[in-house]
Amino acid sequence: MGTRGVRVSVKSGRSKLDRWDDLRMKVLTNPTQNEIEMAAKALKEGHLVAFPTETVYGLGADAENKIAVSRIYSVKGRPTSHPLIVHISSMNQIDKWAVNIPEYASLLAEKFWPGPMTLILKRSDLAKDFITGGQQNVGLRVPAQPVALALLNELDKLGGNGISAPSANRFGAVSPTTAAAVKDEIEKFLNIQDLILDDGPCLFGLESTIIDCTKADPVILRPGYLTRSMVEEKTGIILSKIKLYSAVKTSGLLKSHYSPKAEVVLDETPGTGDGFLAMADVPTPQGAIRLASPTTIDEYAKNLYSILRLADNKKLLKISVRMPEGDGLAEAIRDRLIKASARS
Ligand code: TXA
Ligand code: MG
Predict the structure, then answer these.
(1) Cβ(72) to ligand 1 under 6 A?
(2) Which of 146, 211, 245, 294 is the 20 to 30 A CA-CA neighbour of 22?
């Protein structure tokens, strides 16, 4: 009920915004255009806004605001040497943040943005050390999620140029794919004026594919929803396999990452009371607690992080995971599971 932007509560007769002020509510569910404008304003004023993308929820700050960006690091507990992805509203913004853009990178941007792909490019002067962790490169992505895009467009209107946003989890923990998971991870570290935009569960559930575009040929640094074969099919570009010991610093390359509290063990028979995750055609071993039975690889990817969270909510000590086989998205899932299972 009520006007666009300010929904009037029938019971109290007061607007959602009044309630937000009074009760210090930080979550805006199914945000209206007015609320997205308000969130863009909050970003411009130096506050943090967690927002949905098609991959995972991000914790955003105005990418040109050093103090706001420093808060991302403290809220996440992330070392400042680990760079942040700058989210931009369209590929027209690429020249603001990057220089010496190779032709293959422009082609990738044209074909796959907006979408789950991050390009690492030589930085422009706009991309400061506080974004890049002191590296000479910058990570750029145009997300496809409508609320994320609307937020970026509104920030542009206010004179902004991009939102720096890592996944909205504590450093090393499981990325959030719902606003409730964002709350669980970081709510206690947020201020009253920070916001969480809730637009439901993320469509893909696995972080973007990161492609290093600083060399003669592109290299995948982090596999994701966009696979090598999709890229090859649409562009003819052959991406090299991940170089685990690349000179470029990517925290997703750390051995232990994406980890729940429960111990994750891979392809081991679970004991009694252990959680168990496998594709639907794999029967549950006796005594194990089945956490999920995805029927497709897409479903596996989409639900992986919420399944790991579910295991923690159930206070399970161990999760035994049967890794999916095959190329493409299965490879990205295995990448995350191997890191989730690493203990150092
Ligand atoms: O799907 C995604 O990529 C999500 C959504 C929110 O966009 N973001 C995300 O951000 O996963 P984060 O910070 O959790 O992971 C991004 C990875 C990090 O490992 C970071 O080190 C790497 O990207 N990265 C960012 N900028 C980089 C740069 N300039 N050079 C190398 N790696 C970079
Ligand atoms: Mg992350």
Answers:
(1) no
(2) 146
pLDDT tens for 274-291 read 999 999 999 999 999 999
Integer Cα distance of 178 and 182 in angstroms? 7
| Rounded distance between C-alpha atoms, residue 244 and residue 114, angstroms | 27
Instruction: Give, for 163, the enclosing helix (H) or strand (E).
Output: strand 163-164
Does pLDDT of 315 surpass 70? yes
**Element containing residue 95 per DSSP (H, E):** helix 94-97
Dihedral (Cα; 337, 52, 117, 129), 10-degree rounding: -100
Residue 70 C-alpha from the chain's centroid: 18
Q: What is the pLDDT of residues 102-137, one digit of tens each?
A: 999 999 999 999 999 999 999 999 999 999 999 999
Q: pLDDT value at position 242? A: 62
Measure the CA–CA gap between 149 and 142, rounded to whole angstroms. Answer: 8
- 19-25 long-range contacts (CB < 8 A, ≥24 apart) are 24/192
- For residue 77, how many other CB atoms are within 10 A of its CB? 13
Contact 218, 105 (CB under 8 A): yes
Ligand found nearest the CA of 249: 1
Ligand 1 and 165: CB distance under 6 A: yes
Nearest-CA residue for ligand 1 atom 32 is 250
15 has pLDDT over 60: no
Among 266, 261, 53, which residue's Cα sits nearest to residue 147? 53
Percentages of the chain per state (helix, strand, coil), in multiples of 5? 35, 20, 45
Ligand 1 atom with the smallest distance to the CA of 57 is 6
